[in-house]
Structures are given as C-alpha cells and as structure tokens.
Amino acid sequence: PNSVCRDDQGRLQVAGLDVVTIAREFGTAAYVVDEDDFRARARAFRDDFAGAFDTVCGGADVYYAGKAFLCTAVAKWVAEEGLSLDVCSGGELAVARRAGFPAERIGFHGNNKSLDEIRAALDYGVGRIVLDSFVEIDRVAEIAADLGVVAPVMIRVTVGVEAHTHEFIATGHEDQKFGFSLSGGQALEAAKAVLARDSLDLRGLHSHIGSQIFDTGGFEMSARRLVGLHAQIANELGHHSPEIDLGGGFGMAYTSQHTPLSPALLGEQLADIVGREFKAIGDGDLAEVPRVSIEPGRAIVGPSTFTLYEVGTVKQVALGDNHSRAYVSVDGGMSDNVRPALYEADYSCTLANRDSEAAPMLARVVGKHCESGDIVVQDEWLPADTAPGDLIAVPGTGAYCRALSSQYNHTPRPPVLAVRDGKARVIVRRETIDDLLALDVGVS
Ligand code: LLP
C-alpha cells in the first residue's frame, strides 16, 4: 500500500504503525490491511472509473467482488465508500447482511444457487440476481412468485472470450460452466424465457472474461458481443435492458513485472469502447447506452494487504557449482496463501523488522506445511543475515489469500488486522486449535 515505508530504525511501517509492534501485539502470521489504502482504491473506482462514463451513459456502478476478500468490516468500508457489492454465495450474502449492506446495491452470482440462497437473496431484497441456467430461470421465477415479489435479474452471457493476464482468446471458450452461450442462441432464448415470466424483471446482460487482466482488448471483444445481443433483444423481443455489466478481472501488480491501468484510464478506455459499440448498432433508442457496471475484486483489495510472518528456520541447500539457496521457513504458507501452489503465482517479500547491510542471498521462502510445493515466494534476494526471529512481509496478499485459505495440517488461520492512523484492530480474529477441535465431534 501507499502508506508503507521504513521508520528510522529500518522497521517497515504501515499507516504509521511498525510491524514489530504489530507482531508483538497480535502475533504472526497475520494479514495486515491498510484501511485507507483499501478505501482510496474503492473511491478511485467509484470516482475516476465511474466518472469516465458520465458523458456516455450517465455513469457507472462499481460492484466490489466480495469473493476476493469479504468480512463485515470490509463490507462496511465498501458501503461507506458508495460502491455496490457482488456476492456469490449464501455465506457472502450473510456477511453483507450482518454488515447492514444496502440490499438494493447487492448483486448475487453463482452457477448453482440453492433454493435457500435464492430465497435469502429475495427476502433481503438484493438489487439483482445474475441468472446462469434455464433451470435457474424457473427456480428464481417460482420462488419470487411464491414470495410475491418481482426479482430483478441479469442474464450471464458466455461471450466466448477468455482472458489470461496478457492475452485473450476470442474463440472456442464457450466450453465452460458459466452462463448462456451466445453462439448457440441460448442467451437470446434465456432473455425470451425471462421476459415471459411476470415475477422476473430483466435488468440486463452480464459477462465476465477472466481475472488478472491488463489489456482491454478482451473487454472490447466481450462488449461488442454483449451489445450485439442487447440490440437483438431490443429488435426481436422489444425489450431495452437498462444495464450492462462487463464483470471484473482488472489486474494488479504482484511484482515489478506488472503495470496495471489506473481506474481513471481503465474507465476512459472502457467508456470509449462501450460508447463506440453502441454507436455502431444504430440510432435513436437503440443507440441509447444502458448503465454500465463492473465487478473488480483483486484490483481494490489485493494491494491493500501484506502478510506478516516470522522466520522459524534458515537452511542452506547446495545447488552445485558452488551455488546455494537459502530455504527460509515462515510460520504460515499454503494454508494462508495457496496461490503459489495453485497458480504458480509470483510474490515478492522483504525483511521487515530491521535494515541489514549484509550481502544479498538467493532465498526461497517456504511455509510450514508437509508438502514441498508449499512455497510462499519462489525466488527473492534477502540479506544473508536473515535469521530465526526476523519478520518477513509479503505484499499484495489482499485478494484470494484469506478467501482461499484452509486449515491444512490443522493450522488455525491467521487474523486480519486493519491499520489506520497508527492503530491496528482485529477485523477477523485468529483461529485457535479449540476452534478447529470444536468442529470435531466424533469422540467426546
Ligand atoms: N465477477 C465475477 C463474475 C467473477 O467470477 C469474478 C472472479 C470477479 C467478478 C472478480 O474478479 P477480480 O476483479 O477479482 O479478478 N482465485 C483466483 C481468481 C478467481 C476469480 C474468480 N472470479 C486467483 O486467486 O487468482
């Protein structure tokens, strides 16, 4: 985050609080969130990104994707900063509810929402449910009719564009579980089915093309296809949807290799794309651009957080040719960040509790779990005097780390600490072995 720097004793500090104090008070491993950084990123999407759409369609809505990381404090920050919230399970919806998140600003996703989840969403009055299958169209319509409400819905469209970081592939990616396919005409059929139901209100079309994307080319392709379908629905079914959603997936910098677009630039490019695509389809009503929304998760929460670990052991392993690698073991690992093991994700790290004049050594930071793939940072230069008791900070762990965490090897999960104005507070407490044992009811 922006507010991370070193104090005069070489200790890393965040929002005016040093990590040695944090570790002493709360223990390690811990996720440390810079609250102001999170809020500033959320605001940048709300103001700079959304502002770019003012002249195109009267503005844009930003749904924070809770799947990247959600707890009640974060839901409150999102609400206070004026964003909307994307949830994709009954659990995430329950968090939003407990935080008192305004129902009309919630979007509900999922390719297999249970009856209870649909009922809970309608009961809370969410602003939109994103429909993913014909089975679900019937289900939501019936439950809404039962409850005597009209459900605001969007149709998730499989646009046939899949984006991976630097590339996007525009053909043949319809073979996946999400959405109604465009090429087979299913998406149009879905619109027809929704429009035929009195208990459903078709708000618009939705697409999501991937995650950790840096190039707007994939969004351009997907917007073109969505706009084409929007026009077809208007022309053939006489329905003008008021919203269009381009999904999430905006990349963040994990290492110096990545340069993400700022929310302002991203807004400018997407507004330009959407404006152009609507101009291309016709005049009058048809060219009227619906309200645009997006669903960034990683780009908001990812950079706001670092994980603080304590070094337990350091071991030199010979690599031949007089080279060696230091294996630096920390008190966490794949249970609190599975992304290196799951996606070969790259992270960096730094010695956090002091400066060092020692020469750099090639290090691999590893966790405490019983797998050799339990790697936190694959390759990093750390000072050669890095020793047990030192603190290591791994930046950029706000997204899909705590969210994907496990209790592998019966390891209690670390707390999430929010730091602001020189003070830290626990927003998700540390799990204990007693928490884990409480679930185990086999032997009393
Ligand atoms: N909207 C929808 C419908 C999504 O499926 C996702 C992410 C998002 C928004 C938010 O995407 P973001 O802006 O955070 O990239 N576990 C993987 C990422 C999975 C993303 C799943 N869907 C990882 O750790 O890289």
Automatic annotation (TrEMBL):
Its cofactor is pyridoxal 5'-phosphate. Residues 50-301 form the Orn/DAP/Arg decarboxylase 2 N-terminal domain. Pathway: Amino-acid biosynthesis; L-lysine biosynthesis via DAP pathway; L-lysine from DL-2,6-diaminopimelate: step 1/1. Substrate binds at residues 298, 339, 343, 371, 400. Keywords: Amino-acid biosynthesis, Decarboxylase, Lyase, Lysine biosynthesis, Pyridoxal phosphate. It catalyses: meso-2,6-diaminopimelate + H(+) = L-lysine + CO2. SUPFAM superfamilies: Alanine racemase C-terminal domain-like, PLP-binding barrel. Gene3D superfamilies: Alanine racemase (3.20.20.10), Lyase, Ornithine Decarboxylase, Chain A, domain 1 (2.40.37.10). InterPro entries: Ala_racemase/Decarboxylase_C, DAP_deCOOHase_LysA, De-COase2_C, De-COase2_CS, De-COase2_N, De-COase2_pyr-phos_BS, Orn/DAP/Arg_de-COase, PLP-binding_barrel. One of its GO terms (molecular function) is diaminopimelate decarboxylase activity. Its EC number is 4.1.1.20. Specifically catalyzes the decarboxylation of meso-diaminopimelate (meso-DAP) to L-lysine. Homodimer. Belongs to the Orn/Lys/Arg decarboxylase class-II family. LysA subfamily. This is Diaminopimelate decarboxylase. The lineage of its organism: Bacteria, Bacillati, Actinomycetota, Actinomycetes, Micrococcales.
